[in-house]
Amino acid sequence: MTIPPHSQLLIGQLLMAPAGRNPDQTIHDGEGSVHTYRQFHARIGQLAAALTRMGLDRGATVAVMDWDTPRYLECFFAIPMIGSTLHTVNIRLSPEQVLYTINHAEDDAILCHADFLPLLLPLLSRIKRPARLIVLTDGPAPLPEGFDGEYEALLATEAPDFTFPDLAEDTRATLFYTTGTTGDPKGVSYSHRQLVLHTLAIAAGLGTVPGKGGINRDDVYMPITPLFHVHGWGFPFIATFLGLKQIYPGRYQPARLLSLIAEHKVTFSHCVPTILSMLLSAPEAATTDLSRWKVLIGGSALSDGMVRQARRHGIDIHAAYGMSETCPFVTVADMVASQANDDITIRTAAGRAAPLVEVRVVDPDMRDVPHDARTTGEVIARAPWLTAGYIENPEGSADLWRDGWLHTGDVGHMSPDGTLRITDRLKDVIKSGGEWVSSLTLENLASMVLGVREVAAVGVPDDRWGERPVLVVVLEGAEPVENAIMVRIAAAIATGDLPKWAAPDRICAVAQLPRTSVGKVDKKLIRQMLAKGEIT
Ligand code: AMP
User: Fold this and answer.
1) Ligand 1 contact, 298 CB (< 6 A)
2) Which of 157, 196, 339, 523 is deepest in the core (most CB within 10 A)?
3) What predicted TM-score, i.e. pTM, was given to this entire model?
4) CB-based contacts of 200: which residues, under 8 Å, 6+ apart?
5) Does position 182 have pLDDT exceeding 70, yes or no?
6) Are 136 and 91 within 8 A, CB to CB?
7) Which residue has the least CA distance to atom 10 on ligand 1?
8) Among 245, 267, 263, which Cα is nearest to 25's?
């Protein structure tokens, strides 16, 4: 049965309720500029008209290189709504990788903030497909050579009442690249239908948490996950759909983020643990009221130590789990249970399946492991919004979707009540004497030791055992922490929470941990640095 044009699930529909119900609600940038939803709606029409006038519409791919700004949010809507694909360029990749993604995506246009011109301009001669170029500036500036226009100037010449085309809901809406530990970045895309369903389901899951937990219409939203990282984890769509006051902070600087939280009374954000750690370590954190702030942590495990630190500031912190290939949300910590019982283990668990999601933990023969909160296996999932596969990568796609389930490459266990806990990444597992050692459990124990700011557990090759665990720590101060960590680990071994072969052979202190382009600890690099003796 074909779905008639008026019944397709389209990103544009996410705008209808907030623009009609609450047109004076506001969207802010980090510099004091503000638009109402009414103006935001009009600007989406103007941007759509400007892009269409440049010949970009159905089937075109339009790249964006920007900080987290309200203009980026306009692109989240206008570009897919004209039938084009929004390519969110990861501006933290190396220039060669940025070039690779632009060429691989075959971008027809690039919208580039002036701050990223030094990255883009040297690449232009090697971009294979001629692209229309639009610069985004924060004030008067000459148009760079070869550019077709400046964003605000282009919008200013257009009328806001653009008539958007009818589209099929499976039209590609977004595209971005995920970088694994090896090989070229892989293109992941989502359709209108997938993004609408992800938005509705996550809004329903978080929106039905009683009390002040979850997300509700009184919330003030500020992303601290870059918008190029899985569409800012889909939250800009959710926040807009709910008509929330939104703050787009621009470039991430801890003092500025904290002052925006205070100024706008921000109540809801999401980020990777590293960013929260950076914020809470800033001197301004001590004097900023964070007691209204709800933070969803994803992208890496949320440690007990980080929950304790956040709770000291009064932050309502929870973990969520997903990946680039899953739009991203698959599970969210049980916020209802955490309200009733402020238990760290509830907050740090990856949590329960989100609405419309099926999650399983399986052995290599695809048999479900017992739900005993101990037996580990690979996490696999199904949901209407998981990516269909990698762009022009049939092998990678087939591997991702083995046996009709999306294979996350993450290792975890499930408790009898369906709570998922991630214990490792398959590629990062430490195998000592043929047995797995959970790097996340080790990191979690070490994170609770006073004086440990950050920690990573990795396996190093060992002649006798195959691999042995090593901890690499960043200290808060000058006090040594090795003994305290070993005492905690010994206690966990004594209670049976950790096998005895999991005790690390070495604990190395470093000034900082290497990071990936999305701010996560780069364990592959740590392993290489240990092998080369650069970490001792
Ligand atoms: P990315 O594709 O960059 O979003 O990374 C996704 C990966 O981050 C997942 O496959 C997990 O390895 C990791 N991850 C995300 N959320 C969690 C979580 N709550 N706990 C542990 N690891 C997580």
Assistant:
1) yes
2) 196
3) 0.94
4) 241
5) no
6) no
7) 323
8) 245
DSSP code for 123: G
Q: Is the CB of 330 under 6 A from ligand 1?
A: no
Q: What is the mean pLDDT of residues 239-253?
A: 97
CA 354 – CA 405 distance, rounded (Å): 16
Task: Supply 38's token pair.
Answer: 């009414």
Please tell me if the CB atom of residue 422 comes closer than 6 angstroms to any atom of ligand 1.
yes
- The domains found in the chain, sorted by start residue, are 8-190+228-250 (3.40.50.12780), 252-426 (3.40.50.12780), 428-531 (3.30.300.30)
Q: Over the stretch 462-511, which tens digit does the pLDDT of each residue have?
A: 999 999 999 999 999 889 999 999 999 999 999 988 999 999 999 999 99
The answer to whether residue 1 scores a pLDDT higher than 80 is no
Give the atom of ligand 1 at the shortest distance from the alpha carbon of 408: 10
Q: How far is CA 335 from CA 191, 225, 237, 321, 341, in A?
A: 29, 21, 21, 14, 10
**Which residue, 509, 493, 510, is CA-closest to 501?**
493
Mutate to test the pocket of ligand 1, among 88, 295, 424, 425 (most ligand atoms within 8 A of CB): 425
Q: Is residue 369 a contact partner of residue 375, using CB atoms and an 8 Å limit?
A: yes
